[in-house]
Amino acid sequence: MSEAIELYVHIPFCMRKCLYCDFLSGPYDRVDRERYTKALLQEIRYYGDVLNHPRVRSLFVGGGTPTWLEPEWMEEILCAIRSTFDLEEDCEVTMECNPGTVTEDSLGVYLRAGVNRLSIGLQSCDDEELRLLGRIHDVNRFYKTYELARRAGFSNINIDLMTGIPHQTLDSLKKTLKIVTGLRPEHLSVYDLIVEDNTPFHDMYIFDVVKRQAGQPTEVLPDEDTELAMTLMVEDFLEKKGYHQYEISNFARDGRECRHNVGYWTRVPYLGLGAGSASLLHETRWSNESDLYRYMEACEKLPDLPASESLMQGVSKLSRYEQMEEFMFLGLRMNEGISLEEFEHKFGAPCTGIYGKTIRDYRNQELIEMSRGRLFLTPRGRQVGNLVFEGFLIDRN
């Protein structure tokens, strides 16, 4: 490929699954972790050859908890990627970690292997809120992890936070924001808690979810008005502390935006490695086998064609309309929105010609604005972003 791509590597291991988590992850034993590492190395080499060692602009190692994998195996994975793919000189290499899962030695291994951005899953600075989420750490463990990372030499750190936690209040959230911004990380991601099906959270709080959906008062989960107030407070607080919002859930100091995530929202081609990972190359989308053991079996048979076919699930070529839809609802997640000129250049038709009525309606409702050749969500539009995005689905009837 001549165009630079992004790489995502999934490490599905963690010490213990959090109560709200529906990701492909779990506390697998050492035998499975070693077998998975070897299978992943096979997949890395396979795609390096098939794609002719493409240039890579960013690499993101997520999970699970990547730092729960043995550091020497993670180093082997990262070195295999560097020797198989052509990482650009300024390639952003992010690794997720949870507090308490790193040491001075392991952080040194990651740095030597090329990791230059660390993403720490804190979620809250309230120990009771962390307990209710089923997290493995407390606030003191987070402090120690953050201090270790700085001492090791990490100069680009993201911290994940969460709103909508059971019993969370505006005061407890503000306390978390004060503590975290006092540490001056380069980036903050602030996500709303979503109660997913087939998680312990769903069974524990289903009555609150039903009440909230019916517009009734809730007992444990913050209601919709409180969640909205939390969102507005986060945006205002972080702006005053020098973090500009560049996407619905992401805030950064100048020049510290996450290149990898911006690539997703602007539809840079990406390759997902590891069980359950998603890919988008040549406008073709697919996901890897999500069953850990079937994934490993398929990788162990590579480069045989039948093995690659069993590895890739749901392969589909995106239609022109599907590409338009993604261009709109991914690009509109970013505060700068989408370029009308770029839309027309890419699709050979003006955006206002395809989405004229939707744009007019949303402008009248003050959900989107148009200025200097760009279309972007208003602050009010960001608050109901998912509903706005639905308006850009094209009726094919």
Q: Mind explaining what this structure looks like?
A:
The chain is of the alpha/beta class. The chain has helices at residues 30-50, 71-84, 104-112, 127-133, 139-152, 170-183, 200-213, 224-240, 259-265, 292-300, 305-311, 320-331, 340-347, 351-364, 379-383, 385-390, and strands at 5-11, 55-63, 86-97, 117-123, 157-163, 187-192, 244-247, 250-252, 270-273, 278-281, 284-288, 312-317, 338-339, 368-371, 374-377. A nine-stranded mixed beta sheet has the order 7-8-6-5-4-3-2-1-9, with helices on both faces. β3 (86-97), α3 (104-112) and β4 (117-123) form a beta-alpha-beta unit. The radius of gyration is 21 Å and the shape is globular.
Summary tags:
397 residues, 15 strands, 3-stranded antiparallel beta sheet
Strand content: 15-25%
Radius of gyration: 21 Å
Question: What class, by secondary structure content?
Answer: alpha/beta
3D shape: globular
User: What is the first-to-last residue Cα distance?
Assistant: 36 Å
Q: What do the pLDDT scores average to?
A: 93
| β-strand number | 15
Strand order of the largest sheet: 7-8-6-5-4-3-2-1-9
Q: How can the largest sheet be summarized?
A: 9 strands, mixed
By DSSP (H or I, 4+ residues per run), the number of helices equals 16
Low-pLDDT residue intervals, each spanning 5 or more residues: none
Helix content: 40-55%
Task: Show the helix and strand layout.
Elements: E1 5-11, H1 30-50, E2 55-63, H2 71-84, E3 86-97, H3 104-112, E4 117-123, H4 127-133, H5 139-152, E5 157-163, H6 170-183, E6 187-192, H7 200-213, H8 224-240, E7 244-247, E8 250-252, H9 259-265, E9 270-273, E10 278-281, E11 284-288, H10 292-300, H11 305-311, E12 312-317, H12 320-331, E13 338-339, H13 340-347, H14 351-364, E14 368-371, E15 374-377, H15 379-383, H16 385-390
Parallel strand pairs: 1-2, 1-9, 2-3, 3-4, 4-5, 5-6
Antiparallel strand pairs: 6-8, 7-8, 10-11, 11-12, 13-15, 14-15
Helix pairs in contact: 1-2, 1-10, 2-3, 3-5, 6-8, 10-11
